[in-house]
Amino acid sequence: MDSGTTVKTAAVADVRPSQEITISKEVKVVPTYDNAEEQVYETHNGLILPTEEEKSTLRRVAGKMPASCYYLCAVEFAERASYYGCNQVYKNFIRAPLPPDGNGAGAAGPKSQYTAGALGRGSVVATAMTEAFKFLAYALPVLFGWMADTKYGRFKMICWGVGICGVAHVIMIVSALPPVLQSGHAIGPFALSLYMLSIGAAQFKPNISPTVMDQSPHKVAHVIEQNGERVIVDPEESINGVMLWFYLLINIGACFGIPTTYLAKIVGYWAAYLVPTILYFMLPPLLWYLNSRLVKQPPGGSDLGNVFKVLGDCFRHGGLRSIGRKGFWEQGKPSVRAAAGDTKQYTYDDQFVNDVRRTFQACGIFLFQPIFNINDGGLGAAANALSAGMQTNGLPNDLLDNLNSVSIVIMVPVMNHIIYPLLRRWGIKWGPISRMTFGFALCTVGSIGFSVLQYYVYQTSPCGYNATTCAEIVPEGENSLSSVSYSWYAVPIILTAISEIFVNVTAYGIAYTRSPKNMKGLVSSINLFMTAISAAIGLATAPAISDPYLIWAFAGPTIAGGVMTVIFWFTFKHIDKEEFVINTGADDFINTDKESDEERAKQNTKTISEKS
């Protein structure tokens, strides 16, 4: 209803039919479950909103999501399958030389103890190049997310990224052809393709997850009857459910690292890069099909300027010492400034200031992720160096890295269809901070495993604390590997993989729901930027990712991760008690194109109807 509309309430006990009140939402008279009396409920666009009592007593369920959500998840699958299919073999491609018993394409001979390799630049260069690639892929999204919000739109930016990555994949195949590798000039085209791929991924990645969540029709919690039971369709559960599928398909795609690892070992790197490229070219027709079927958030200019205005008022009237204290954000609200006699005209309202507060909370949460990302797989190429010294019995030394994705593929359906529904049925609300804290703790435990394994590899290697390069030290034909079985490497990989389900999936939702409407791409990119910080740390420490320092390459971040987990819980645990809010406004599930500050300001002036 429009602001200021007056209606007559339905006749209920103690309410006179002629009584008139001003309301903010529609009012609907609904029989209670036992039909003994009638209850007045607030409704919005035909949806029955839960009362305060129902919010604490009714079971919450995930709402049905449109098919477009899952088609977009398929887009993410194809992009990530090609990305990780290639990424899985980069470190060996750069680090190790062409095997002396190989075919000249990077593959090793049958039953060879040599790893596949091509460029022979060593662990330091391999770490530097791969971490620089990762840094660009996760730092540039800040620019491209902002451009999508302000000028070009998310879908267009996604399409541009797909085009650039397609060209990069073709160049990468050329760089891995046997004549190019044997000429000694493969590093040039490979580096070009590698960093083109990072630019394309940076355009794609910050815009795909907000676009998936844009498709959700569940912007407000509402009550429905399901199998004779009144339940609340919860926007948080709805988004968490679809993002679990999103993350599942990311990791099904990442499983393509398994065949590419074997292709590199048996056939050569040109084949390892060809398969992901073939898969990648299913993206253009899929995006063409989706183009007319998506809810697209148009570029509306960034709210970034207004964010700085809010911060200016908060600092000007609250001072630097008020940061983090109660009342800091109140100083930036237009209503507070007007009450203090300020005559300045504002283009935003009090709700926008609340949105900014929530956005900065989200960014504070993201700051704890870099150490998590480092513990999730090791610092730089440290894990790759660890596995290079283990007893692999002819297996590729990067094969078990793929258990990361396999573990997630197995665990996501378990969480989505067993664990989370059971928690909802039992009335247990496992909030976002609780989930992330559990994920941080689990990752720390897994990272301890890397440290322990590296210690025992050093103790049992024929070369002692030179285990990684032992094959280059001992005479040809002699054993160069530790007696520690490569199978033990699976334990920390699986534990850290499961932790991602609780940390990364939750972070996607936080980035979307706690950011202003015209900053969702930017805030999602800030979430991704934490991976860039991890890569920068890996890049800065690249010279240390070598023997004999590998134990501390694992142990140092592990200790930091344990301390960080405790600090994170006590800093943000209050957020679990907040009611879930999507910062697009409830009207957006009807009109996703426009929402002005003036309309939101009018909405704030309406008086909430109450049961008489």
From TrEMBL:
Gene Ontology CC terms, in alphabetical order: plasma membrane
Coiled coil regions in record: none
Membrane topology: Multi-pass membrane protein
Location, primary (coarse class): membrane
GO molecular function, one term: dipeptide transmembrane transporter activity
Subcellular location: Membrane
Keywords on record: Membrane, Transmembrane, Transmembrane helix, Transport
The name this protein goes by in its record: Peptide transporter ptr2 protein
The UniProt record lists the keyword Transmembrane: yes
Residues annotated as transmembrane: 157-177, 244-263, 270-290, 403-423, 435-457, 486-510, 522-545, 551-572
Family: Belongs to the major facilitator superfamily. Proton-dependent oligopeptide transporter (POT/PTR) (TC 2.A.17) family.
Species whose genome carries this gene: Podospora australis
Organism superkingdom: Eukaryota
Disordered: annotated segments: 593-612
InterPro entries membership: MFS_trans_sf, POT_fam
